[in-house]
Write a structure and sequence with these properties.
By secondary structure, this protein is an alpha+beta fold. Helix 1 packs antiparallel against helix 2. The longest helix is centred in the N-terminal third of the chain and has 14 residues. It is globular and about 35 Å long. It starts with 5 loop residues before the first strand and ends in a 23-residue tail after the last strand. Keywords: Antiviral defense, Endonuclease, Hydrolase, Magnesium, Metal-binding, Nuclease. Pfam families: CRISPR_Cas2 (PF09827). Homodimer, forms a heterotetramer with a Cas1 homodimer.
Length: 93
């Protein structure tokens, strides 16, 4: 049985253009871009751990800000066009 997917919002900020590109490429493998530095992903707990591990390898805690927040199924409202997540997404490097 497959673990249920969680809806996660990922937001980041970095002063480094190089790290910004790397983080953006990484997150694009996992989900869809909502704004320039905000992505929406749907992950199993194992995939979430993998994403967190990958982000820790790219980010510098003393310079970058990173937030991963789980979205409750009925805990948000949206206005305007919303990008659709097409599952399954394939993650590969």
């Amino acid at each position: 049985m497959t673990a249920p997917r969680r809806d996660i919002l990922v937001a980041f900020d970095t002063p480094s253009d190089r790290r910004r590109r790397r983080i953006t490429r990484l997150l694009a493998h996992y989900g869809v871009r909502v704004q320039k530095s905000v992505f929406r992903v749907q992950l199993t707990p194992r995939e979430l751990e993998g994403l967190w591990h990958d982000l820790q390898r790219v980010c510098l805690p003393e310079e970058d800000a990173l937030l991963l927040a789980q979205i409750a199924p009925t805990g948000y409202r949206a206005l305007g066009p919303q990008p659709e997540l097409e599952l399954p997404l394939t993650v590969g490097f």
